[in-house]
Amino acid sequence: MLLKDRPFMYFNFDDEVLSSAGGIATNELMKELHATYGQVKTVLFDEIQNLANWELFVNRLHREGYNLVLTGSNANLLSQELATHLTGRHMPIEILPFDFKEFLRAKKFQIDAEYSALPQQRGELLNFMENYLLNGGFPEVAVNNIDPKDYLDVLFDALLFKDVVKRHRVKFSTQIGNLGSHLINNFANLYTVRKLMGVLNLKSASTTEKYIKYLEEAYLIFSLLRYSPKSVQRIKSPRKVYAVDNGFISAKAIQHSPDKGKLMENLVFVELVKKGNQPNRDLFYYKTRNDREIDFVIKKGHEVVELIQVCYDLTGPNVEQKEVKALVEAGKELSAKSESASGGNVPMLTVLTWDEKHTVEKDGMTIQVAPLWQWLFGL
């Protein structure tokens, strides 16, 4: 897709012939590529990590004026390695599991916004939404309809071994496995390093921090900081943990009946990341002075532009009042804090629910209550 409008050479290193032949001579490879494609200076190398010392080969081609597109697994093409080997001459592109629109395309379901209120279409859409909420957006699950629990359980453990234990040569693999499982089971909850040490009998804070970082680098979990203009408060506050895909939660969770409100929150977090919001730079959680928690704070530059609460069902006693009160309180606090930078603009206030839509006016502020599916569609 990146190269469809320009000529390029292509080679896939994920070929058993190469491993059985004892490797490949890179000069011979380039000669054969040019013999096939002619004088083309753009190359797509697939699964480049299977070539020993690939970064030296890539650096040489770059110096010779080639434009390169590389694909590879998390373990070998993480941005830290690229930054070391290519020193600023690269642009990484992260590919996360399907968003809801992509999931529906995989299921061959089309919705016309004009007819979304019709009971049949709305019912079918919510059925797919439930499937996506529980099973996530990994392509194998969405496209091939394989059993999500078995597949994702094995996939999580394989990624943990390949991209964490093997890559970082972790000696105590059971400890990091327990940590990964514990964090996935406590998704959308706060954690502190000290508490994790106590629960999992880990010996040092530095080791615990290191293990968490390994899990984040492997795209298994994300950690979210509390928003504060003061960096010390951001660093010292508890962090919230989210899984990269809801399917991992259903596959690894020990509880019998999943908390749909928390699953919605996890899904919204990942969708915000897919929309380009970088955790702990553009995206945070927040606690008001009265200790009311706001699920997501979205910043653009110095300005807080939106606050989002996620709640599966607002019909319980005082539930809506509680969510609205937290948003209004946070909106006032954060618009006052950003007044010097942005003129005190009040951020947009949103409550995402399963299937409710209306507007609430309170203390001169407007709160939009919107269904999750509509928000995922950007409507």
Mean pLDDT: 88
Q: What is the number of strand segments?
A: 12
Strand order of the largest sheet: 7-8-9-10-12-11
Number of helices: 18
Radius of gyration: 24 Å
Order of helices and strands: EHHEHEHHHHHHHEHHEHEHHEEEHHEEEH
Task: Report the portion of residues in β strands.
Answer: 15-25%
What is the name of the CATH architecture of one domain? 3-Layer(aba) Sandwich
CATH topology of one domain: Trna Endonuclease, Chain: A, domain 1
Which blocks of ≥5 consecutive residues have pLDDT under 50? 339-343
Largest beta-sheet characterization:
6 strands, mixed
DSSP helix fraction: 40-55%
Question: In CATH, what is the class of one domain?
Answer: Alpha Beta
Shape estimate: globular
Query: How far do the termini sit from each other?
Result: 26 Å
What structural class should be given to the helix and strand makeup? Answer: alpha/beta
